Amino acid sequence: MEHTSAPTPSRPSPDGDNGRKATLFCPDCGHTNPLDGDWVVRTVAGHRRVRCPDCRSLVDERRVTGCQPIHAD
């Protein structure tokens, strides 16, 4: 006999983000917020740096590339 289980519904998050998936976490102080939340974002020397608004730790750093060409289909 094959056992199948019904999918478990997602629990809403306590902060009410309604299903957002892109969440950043500060490894130093535990601050969490959506990617477009309260993070301090600066571009310095061609790198986009995301810092925690609470403890100022660097959470993410990515190289910024130039404008991407738009391709017509």
Structure description:
The protein has no helices and five strands. The strands form two sheets. The protein has a three-stranded antiparallel sheet, with no helix packed on it. Strands 1-2 form a two-stranded antiparallel sheet. The termini are far apart. With 73 residues, the chain is an all-beta fold. A hairpin with a 6-residue loop joins strand 4 and strand 5 (58-63). It has a domain at 23-63.
Low-confidence stretches: 3-12
Overall number of strands: 5
* Percentage of residues in strands: 25-35%
Radius of gyration, whole Å: 18 Å
Average pLDDT metric: 78
- Note the main sheet: 3 strands, antiparallel
Helix content: under 10%
Structural class: mainly beta
Number of contiguous helices: 0
Give, in order, the helices and strands: EEEEE
Termini Cα gap: 50 Å
Within the largest sheet, what's the order of strands?
A: 3-4-5
- Characterize the overall form: globular
| Assembly annotation | single chain
Helix/strand layout:
Blueprint: E1 23-25, E2 32-34, E3 40-44, E4 47-51, E5 58-63
Antiparallel strand pairs: 1-2, 3-4, 4-5
Can you describe this structure in just a few lines?
Residues 20-62 form the DUF8106 domain. The chain is mostly beta strands.
